């Protein structure tokens, strides 16, 4: 049944009793209560309750071979009477049972032609996104991008969007950019996808592991990603624990701390991820930039004029490469300030905010304590003068 001709015209008008009788004789007994409920709810025109019962049916493992048939022969009879987003969600679920690529796309595009896209914008976005994802799986990157852009034009103007619709779009965008090897947009869209789902219940352990792994790789290789905070706080990284990829999690924290020593200690593992090994010079520059940021961050705001010699020691770079590194940090807007090439000093006025590790938080706490102590000394010194003035 799953390979029925989905490009056929609309089926003949439903004869409910005939449909139910055929279903009861052609399906396992464990599915029979569903069909009896379908008969009752359809007869009483209880479309909402019927929709809920259909979702239960489509989620039942035994329904797998019959899903497309039930959707095409039964649901299509009353599809205009039910919530269009729920209808599309059903259609998306059912379409997964159609293996033939052309039939799969025809099924989805046929459903799209029957949706009132002006009134049911969320349904429109979900269906466009699903069609785009199908094209991506079949290797049509150009078609994927066209449908993805069309879906975004609608989605960007909607408010209070269903989480499932947002999740479908961001999953599509992430997978598209993964196929294009565009690391920064993959990273951003993957995190947006994770914000729309509950990884513990909506993703399999394998999906969590792949997503955590790919997020780590994209964080390292994204040429505009120098703040890993949102990823480091996300439980998705726990999927790497106890796996051969656990070192990637350690490397993420190493970059966040700007620890060149730990980076060099983990570098021998890079051949396990050939793409990291191939991009080693870029990663070396990136960890040097992170070390510079960390070095600036650790200093008091009134002590952020650093000599090139100091920066060389902090980043383990040759002295003649320091100026280029600072200019790179300025151009990436990781820091603000100026260079004094004559005195060979960098005056830093601002450093990019970042998420801190426990050790870094301890450093901040220590600086706050010193600041409070300074205030206390000042207070003790001026207190007598304040008393006299009063």
UniProtKB/TrEMBL annotation:
State the Pfam families in the record: PCI (PF01399), PSD13_N (PF22037)
Domain called PCI: residue spans? 185-353
Transmembrane residues, as ranges? none
Q: Which UniProt keywords apply?
A: Proteasome
What biological processes does GO assign it? Answer: ubiquitin-dependent protein catabolic process
Query: Mind naming one GO cellular-component term on file for this protein?
Result: proteasome regulatory particle, lid subcomplex
Q: Which GO terms describe its molecular function?
A: structural molecule activity
Q: In which family does this protein belong, per the annotation?
A: Belongs to the proteasome subunit S11 family.
The name of this protein is PCI domain-containing protein
Q: Lineage of this protein's species?
A: Eukaryota, Fungi, Dikarya, Basidiomycota, Agaricomycotina
């Amino acid at each position: 049944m799953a390979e029925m001709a989905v490009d056929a015209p609309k089926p003949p008008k439903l004869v409910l009793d005939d449909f139910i009788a055929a279903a009861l004789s052609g399906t396992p007994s464990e599915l029979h209560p569903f069909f009896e409920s379908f008969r009752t709810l359809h007869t009483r025109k209880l479309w909402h309750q019927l929709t809920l019962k259909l979702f239960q049916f489509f989620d039942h493992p035994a329904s797998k071979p019959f899903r497309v048939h039930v959707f095409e022969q039964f649901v299509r009879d009353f599809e205009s009477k039910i919530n269009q987003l729920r209808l599309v969600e059903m259609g998306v679920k059912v379409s997964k049972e159609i293996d033939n690529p052309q039939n799969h796309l025809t099924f989805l595009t046929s459903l799209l032609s029957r949706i009132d896209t002006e009134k049911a914008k969320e349904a429109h976005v979900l269906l466009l996104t699903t069609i785009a994802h199908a094209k991506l799986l079949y290797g049509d990157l150009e078609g994927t991008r066209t449908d993805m852009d069309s879906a975004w034009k609608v989605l960007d103007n909607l408010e209070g969007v269903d989480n499932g619709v947002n999740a479908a779009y961001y999953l599509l965008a992430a997978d598209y950019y993964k196929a294009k090897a565009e690391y920064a947009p993959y990273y951003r869209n993957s995190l947006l996808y994770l914000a729309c789902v509950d990884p513990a219940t909506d993703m399999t352990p394998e999906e969590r592991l792949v997503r955590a792994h790919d997020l780590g790789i994209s964080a390292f290789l994204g040429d505009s990603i120098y703040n890993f905070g949102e990823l480091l706080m996300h439980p998705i990284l726990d999927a790497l624990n106890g796996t051969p990829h656990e070192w990637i999690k350690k490397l993420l924290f190493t970059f966040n701390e700007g620890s060149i020593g730990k980076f060099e200690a983990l570098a021998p593992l890079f051949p396990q991820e050939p793409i990291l090994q191939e991009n080693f010079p870029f990663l070396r520059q990136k960890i040097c930039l992170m070390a510079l940021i960390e070095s600036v961050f650790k200093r008091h705001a009134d002590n952020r004029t650093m000599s090139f010699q100091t920066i060389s020691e902090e980043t383990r770079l040759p002295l003649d490469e320091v100026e280029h590194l600072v200019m790179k940090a300025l151009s990436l807007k990781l820091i603000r300030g100026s260079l004094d090439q004559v005195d060979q000093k960098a005056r830093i006025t601002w450093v990019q905010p970042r998420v801190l590790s426990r050790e870094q938080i301890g450093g901040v706490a220590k600086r706050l304590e010193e600041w409070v102590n300074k205030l206390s000394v000042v207070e003790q010194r001026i207190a007598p003068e304040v008393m006299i003035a009063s």
